[in-house]
Specification:
Layout lengths: L1 H14 L9 E8 L8 E12 L2 E13 H11 L19 H16 L3 H10 L2 E12 L14 H6 L12 E9 L2 E11 L5 H7 L5 E12 L1
Antiparallel strand pairs: 1-2, 2-3, 3-4, 4-7, 5-6, 6-7
């Protein structure tokens, strides 16, 4: 599955000239600006593939931000809802980009929606938060002594937080930890899957090729 994702991202990057010849790292980013502060929404993805022993290791990292407090709230406060917000322009051509148009549309839509008392009551708590999600997935077709446990992303940092995931046995491991963090809330989830956990048809497709995968997902909500 991860291999298919990597191949699709690589094809998209190659079509757009983002993938260097012979390169094994793909980085992509997208955002929706709103006002002059931080973007309302931003996504960054990196896929790295490298040889590992008798196989190959793939790492996918993604960071998704939703800046409701630091971007959308000041943008709504700065522009009267009956005025069209000024959109920043591309310095090279003077043309308004698609992302900037989307940001302007999001700003105007939010202004209109917040006129409704019910919507405003539901939105007010959200407008105090910046949300972040970090995802890291590592997979390997190499023969690993500790299987998926050896691929756990950021294992040292998790240990420093007192998070020590179990080792996968006959069943895949899925664990979640949650608690208060500085000015907000944090949640950490870990998933470990080895070849023995896969359905029989997938194991037949892999043949003798080993397979291990581990993933970590961190969600934070920071109040501002």
């Amino acid at each position: 599955m991860l291999k298919r994702i990597r191949q699709r991202i690589s094809r998209l990057a190659a079509d757009r000239g983002l993938l260097p010849a012979g390169g094994n790292t793909v980085t992509m980013a997208a955002e929706i600006p709103v006002g002059q502060d931080a973007p309302l929404w931003r996504m960054q993805i990196q896929v790295v593939t490298e040889p590992q022993a008798d196989g190959e290791r793939t790492r996918l990292r993604a960071h998704i931000q939703a800046n409701f407090a630091s971007a959308l709230r000041p943008a709504l406060a700065a522009t009267p809802d009956n005025e069209r917000p000024a959109l920043p322009q591309d310095g090279r051509s003077g043309a308004v980009t698609l992302a900037q148009r989307a940001g302007g549309l999001a700003q105007r839509t939010a202004q209109r929606a917040l006129r409704l008392p019910g919507v405003r009551a539901l939105a007010e708590p959200l407008m105090q938060l910046d949300l972040n999600t970090w995802v890291e997935i590592q997979s390997s077709s190499a023969s690993l002594a500790d299987g998926s446990h050896e691929l756990l992303p950021q294992a040292d940092k998790l240990a420093s937080l007192g998070i020590v995931p179990k080792r996968a046995a006959d069943q895949p491991v899925a664990e979640t930890w949650a608690g208060e963090a500085a000015d907000g809330f944090a949640q950490v989830s870990v998933l470990q899957i080895d070849k023995r956990h896969l359905p029989e048809n997938l194991k037949r497709l892999l043949g003798k090729q080993p397979f291990s995968m581990a993933a970590a997902i961190i969600n934070t909500a920071q109040q501002k």
